[in-house]
Amino acid sequence: MAVRATVSRFPSDPDAQEASGLPWGVTVTPFATKDENGAAPVYGSDGHMLPRCENCYAYFNTYCELEQWAWTCSLCGSLNGLSSQAIARYTHPQSCAEMISSFIDLDLPLEGSEEETMQARPVYVAAVDLSSSEEFLELTRSALQAALEAVPSGALFGLATFSHKIGLYDVQGAIPVVKNVFIPSDTEDTLSLELEDVMPLSQFLAPVETFKENITSALETLRPTTSWERTAGAAQGLDGVLMGGRGFGLAMESLFNYLGSEYGNTFALARVFAFLSGPPDHGAGQLDTRRYGEQYASKGEDADRALLPEQTPFYKDLAAVAVQAGVCVDIFAITNEYTDLASLKFLSIESGGSLFLYSSTDDSTLPQDIYRMLSRPYAFNCIMRLRTSSEFKPGHSYGHFFPDPQYENVQHIICCDSYATYAYDFDFANAAGFARHTSEQPMLQIAFQYTVVVPPEELSSEGLGSVS
């Protein structure tokens, strides 16, 4: 974990902060392998035994004053008793990570049985836009081939397509089989069948190490929908103009509900790779992007839309569905037309995913990008909590997370790699600010709980928690 402050010295009071004109806060890279000074964490075990303050729930750390039977919290100053187990533990301080360093990484015990843990496999689902060109699909095939090489052993993979219909591929038989369900054109309508009724999830998700060749064969069968199919499958659009039949919104919503039914059982993390060749224009979540042409920049028309704000809250609401289903969404848009990413971005931002935009298939580095992304270590099912000493408090927070609905300053992160960075700004708790003549310094503590995928023989190390 790396924590970097925006200023080398904190302002002494609100007046000094206001007069400085500088942002006051920190950036946090929670899954970084080293801290801001390049030091690695001190590793330890029995993270569940780390004492916590009875008043502010901060964790015991090297800045706390330790007595024979008690300790004083470095954040709020409360005196806390020590259990007999903790007293015995701290009689050998050099064996305790929390007594050696302020940057520690502790193992937490696994929850559930070993059998349940083995079932919690990572899932990767490719959702491919067929309302596209052959060049787009060729690039997507190359990207998914790279992804199959990068995913960890034991992963499950599913292939889905969308246009004016959703296609689910069964690759576990002798030949790939696809089953389709049509997407209604009306924005208020839903699918006539649940995806679970179209194909059981266990049939859709195939172990990569067993069916990699079958998955490759299925990718080769992908073909763009013909102009006749689009015209027949798509309804009349706005002002009587035929739309393209790209039912992205309802396809994503259906996939999230499909996967969410097995969250925590069949899989511990699901990542959906959504490949888009243009704006969604069919069914729920369709976007009207015709008025966002280059002519508005040149003619100065529609001043209210100069900054291109999101057109609909549909995808922000859909991001909440993805989060509840344990799904991280990565969007890969390969298009040179306006696609209203201002609306679509919430799917990736709030689920912990990434958003990539490529203006053409010719110069795209999509296969390399997706391989690098999946090759990096990442954590999932993360919870981050920032605490401060009593003179100041966290203000706003920024990043690819969603706030806990019950607790303040607690953020949930679906997926987090070693580059993911989050920001917090601070406010003073009162007008007095920091005491000028005291030995007590402002304190900041960040706790980051996460899970990582490890090889089966190392499962005893799964479930790491970091406290800095």
Question: How does this model look, in words?
Answer:
- It contains 14 helices and 22 strands.
- By secondary structure, the chain is of the alpha+beta class.
- Strands 8, 9, 10, 11, 12, 13, 14 and 15 form an 8-stranded mixed sheet that branches. The protein has a 7-stranded mixed sheet with strand order 3-7-22-21-16-19-18.
Provide key terms for this protein.
Immunoglobulin-like; eight-stranded mixed sheet; alpha+beta; 22 strands; SH3 type barrels; Rossmann fold
Helix content: 25-40%
Low-confidence stretches: 113-118, 232-243, 295-299, 456-464
Question: If you compute it from the alpha carbons, what radius of gyration comes out, rounded to the nearest whole angstrom?
Answer: 25 Å
Give the tally of structural domains.
3
Q: Name the overall outline.
A: elongated
Number of helical segments with 4 or more residues: 14
Count of DSSP E strands?
A: 22
CATH architecture of the largest domain: 3-Layer(aba) Sandwich
> First CA to last CA: what distance?
7 Å
Largest sheet: 8 strands, mixed
CATH topology of the largest domain: Rossmann fold
Structural class: alpha+beta
Share of β-strand residues: 25-35%
CATH superfamily of the largest domain: von Willebrand factor, type A domain
CATH class category name of the largest domain: Alpha Beta
Q: Look at the structure and give the mean pLDDT.
A: 84
